[in-house]
Specification:
With 306 residues, the chain is an alpha/beta fold. 37% of the residues lie in helices and 14% in strands. It is built from 12 helices and 12 strands. Strand 4, helix 4 and strand 5 form a beta-alpha-beta unit. The longest helix has 20 residues. The radius of gyration is 21 Å and the shape is globular. The two termini are 21 Å apart.
Amino acid sequence: ELLQTHKLLDTCEAGLAERYTVHKLHEASDREALLNEIGPRIRAIAGGNVDGALMGRLPKLEIIANFGVGYDSIDTKAARERNIRVTNTPGVLDDAVAEIAMALMIGLSRQLPQADRFTREGRWEQGNYPFTTELRGKTVGILGLGRIGKEIAARAQAMKMRIVYHGRNRQPTEPHVYYDNLEEMARDSDWLVIVAPGGPETNGIVSRQVLEALGPEGRLVNVARGSLVDEQAMIELLETGGIGGAGLDVFADEPRVPERLRKLDNVVLTPHYASATRTTRDAMGALVLKNLKAHFNGDPLPSAVV
Ligand code: NDP
C-alpha cells in the first residue's frame, strides 16, 4: 500500500493506481484517523512533505519517491536513520527550468511585462517606450553550477554573457571562473542566478551582505528555493534601490507572495512553475514510477538520494 502526500499529475496518479493501493493523505478529512488505520500497512510514499513524525507513523515504510529534484521538504536524516530510501527526479527538468531562468533575465532586463502593458494599453501612440538594458556583455554569477546551472550557463553564453560560479567545490572540468566566496562573486557580477538546493545548509546564504554586494545595478534571479534568500532584506533593498531588480519563481512562504513584493515594478514574478510543462511533468512522473518499480523489484534505484 502506498501513501500519496500531495496532488500529482493525472498520468502519474493513474500509474500509481495501476500498481498500488493508493491512499491520499492530502485529501483526508481526518489525517490522524487515516494514519491510524492505514499507517501500519504503508510501504511507500509518493510525493514530498515528509518529516520524521510522519515516518514514525509508518513502521513499514521502505521508500519515499519525491516528485521533483529538490527534496528539501523531506527529512533525509530521519529517513537515513530508519533505513528508508529516498528518490528524486533529476535531469528530466533541467531544460525547462533553465528556460525560465533565461525568461526571467530577459523579462527583467527588457521590462517585458511592462512593455506588454504599454503596448496593450495604447500608450505607444503617445511616444516610444523608454530604453531598457541588454544581457550581452554582462557577467552572470551562478550559485549552484549543477545540472540546471550548467544548462543556464549554456544559454547565458548564447546570450554573449560571461559566466562565473559559486558552489562548495571548484569544478576543474568547467571553463568558467570559480569563486569560493559568494559575496565576492556577487560584487563582481551583474546578475546573480540562484539554482542551488534548499535545506538547512543553504538557508539564507543569499544574505543582506550578499545582496548589498550585488548592488544597485545588480539583478537577482531565483529559480531554486525561497529559503536561500533573506527575503525581508531583498524586499527592502528592492524598495530602496539597493539592488536593481529581481526575477523570482520561488518564495519563502509559497503560495503566499508578500504584498510589498507584488507592488514593486522592478520585479518579475512567476508561480514556481519552472518545471511545469506537460512534457517535463510527464517525465518527472514517469521517473517517480520507475523508482518505485525498481525498489519493489529489488533492482538498483534509477535516482536515489538516500
Ligand atoms: P544539482 O545537485 O545538480 O546542483 C546543485 C548545485 O548546487 C551544485 O553545483 C552544488 O555544487 C551546489 N550546492 C549544493 N550545496 C551547496 C551549498 N551548500 N552551497 C553552495 N552551493 C551548493 O541540482 P539541480 O541542478 O538538479 O537542481 C538545483 C535545485 O533547483 C534543486 O535542488 C531545486 O530546489 C531547484 N529546482 C527548482 C525548480 C523550480 O520549479 N523552480 C525545478 C527544479 C529544481 P557543490 O556540490 O560544488 O556545492
